[in-house]
Amino acid sequence: MKILTRQSILPHRPTLISSIGFGVLRKLGPKRWFSAHSEEPELKELMEYMDSLKNYEKVGVPKGAGTDSDDGFDLGRMRRLMERLGNPQSQFKAVHIAGTKGKGSTASFLSNILRAEGYSVGCYSSPHIQTIRERISLGRFGEPVSAKTLNCLFLQIKKILDQAIEHENGRISHFEIFTAMAFTLFARENVDIAVIEAGLGGARDATNIISSSGLAASVITTIGEEHLAALGGSLESIAMAKSGIIKHGCPLVLGGPFLPHIECILRDKALSMSSPVVSASDAGNQSTIKGISRMNGRPYQSCDLVIQIERDFKLFLELPDVKLCMLGSHQLQNAATATCAALCLRNLGWRISDGSIRAGLEHTFLLGRSQILTSKETEALGLHGTTVLLDGAHTKESANALVKTIKMTFGEAPLFLVVAMASDKDHVGFAREFLSGGELEAVLLIEADIAGGKSRTTSASLLRDCWIQASKELGIDIVHDGTTKSGEVFNNLLVCSASKLENGTILDAESSLMASLKATNQILRERAGNQSGIIVVTGSLHIVSMVLAALSS
């Protein structure tokens, strides 16, 4: 391969007909909820207030901040804030989810299972794609909190927040304030249960103020090498940090699969807390993907889901032919993890039918997770007749999962990437997964603001260098011009190369999203001919946000 470069258990209640709720959800679609990249005018004061706070998503997380040590975030600060608000987190049951990857998808699967059963669910997750309202969903249908509700809450508690910030000498963060607002909303809305996604790690995360009496179950999805410095520098320290969400006597659901010694760390912590363990990766769980089909123009994977747990809890479920809109074996694993959590809740006395588990799984869809744009959307981007997939993969593990998903869904269709990444990611490892995964026609690299700022932005030229390094490590020949050329000259070179390099991968650093899409489409037309090519936009949820913003502008 050659690379050419340029630079309490609840009483029974009537069950809602879940298909109505999810039908409404689907009809609204992403544009209904995410119609503007900038926040709604009604949230102007709130957003200005939030922007005045320390935002670690924007500037990066300090070394050791997520560890249960002297360097870790001060969880006492969060507890004091919640005391001022009346400890709303004590007024509802919660499932707490941590993990390197899969937290958001697992939270969404589980929330939808519970909603399908008729429960009022509060779900808190991060980050958001286009509006901060995405982080909080309420009720039986899972809509993001309305701007009016969020603004009213802010105005009602602003004085308390001001007092807390002053008392803590300004050290309360953006994430801590919004977490407090989410928990306050869940209490005020009297949700039956909340599904809470941890932000960073677990032990010192702002969400980890839920007591054992309030915790229905904890879930740890995966352990991987992300936020290494912030979480202690090793897989073992990351596992210890995430195990901090395990509470005395509360069941622990493990996703996995994990390395044996990492699973031992998690199980040993659970044992010390007298917490029963359920693992979605147990040998008795035989979930499989049978194939890919299409419905209403969109692909789904048909899966057989079999859960058979013999240790700690005895759980069994068999669901044939589950149609998952969330694609990939990793999403099947997330679905299995969520199902194990649901079965745990059922074992504890929560009413959850097999039918609700199926409905919840089948009606789960998240923006930026193997999201395939409609033909109308691709045309709006000037990419007529092209398949465009958006996925926020940003680690080597998620890149590997994405490569497998693409192959399973599209086979050997010509593949083109548009990539932007945050500065604290493993750029070389990410590139290596794609380069070793098969032939790439072209990789277009751009820059993307991270959480609305440039502190964690990676330049396109640095990304280019990382892809070159990855290709060298893999023994791939590199062909590039070696000189700085204007965009126009190189674009002409690209077109020429596209037709001449039969097995070459074109690597190009572009100035903007639209420029990269234009160049990618140009190369696609030259190289794929009449064959349908796939453009994958990936590397960060923030570049996904850019594409969706372009569609709604």
From TrEMBL:
<keyword id="KW-0460">Magnesium</keyword>
<dbReference type="InterPro" id="IPR036615">
    <property type="entry name" value="Mur_ligase_C_dom_sf"/>
</dbReference>
<dbReference type="GO" id="GO:0004326">
    <property type="term" value="F:tetrahydrofolylpolyglutamate synthase activity"/>
</dbReference>
<comment type="similarity">
    <text>Belongs to the folylpolyglutamate synthase family.</text>
</comment>
<keyword id="KW-0479">Metal-binding</keyword>
<dbReference type="Pfam" id="PF08245">
    <property type="entry name" value="Mur_ligase_M"/>
</dbReference>
<protein>
    <recommendedName>
        <fullName>Mur ligase central domain-containing protein</fullName>
    </recommendedName>
</protein>
<dbReference type="GO" id="GO:0005737">
    <property type="term" value="C:cytoplasm"/>
</dbReference>
<dbReference type="GO" id="GO:0005524">
    <property type="term" value="F:ATP binding"/>
</dbReference>
<keyword id="KW-0547">Nucleotide-binding</keyword>
<keyword id="KW-0067">ATP-binding</keyword>
<feature type="domain" description="Mur ligase central">
    <location>
        <begin position="97"/>
        <end position="341"/>
    </location>
</feature>
<keyword id="KW-0436">Ligase</keyword>
<dbReference type="InterPro" id="IPR018109">
    <property type="entry name" value="Folylpolyglutamate_synth_CS"/>
</dbReference>
<dbReference type="InterPro" id="IPR013221">
    <property type="entry name" value="Mur_ligase_cen"/>
</dbReference>
<dbReference type="GO" id="GO:0046872">
    <property type="term" value="F:metal ion binding"/>
</dbReference>
<dbReference type="GO" id="GO:0008841">
    <property type="term" value="F:dihydrofolate synthase activity"/>
</dbReference>
<dbReference type="InterPro" id="IPR001645">
    <property type="entry name" value="Folylpolyglutamate_synth"/>
</dbReference>
<dbReference type="InterPro" id="IPR036565">
    <property type="entry name" value="Mur-like_cat_sf"/>
</dbReference>
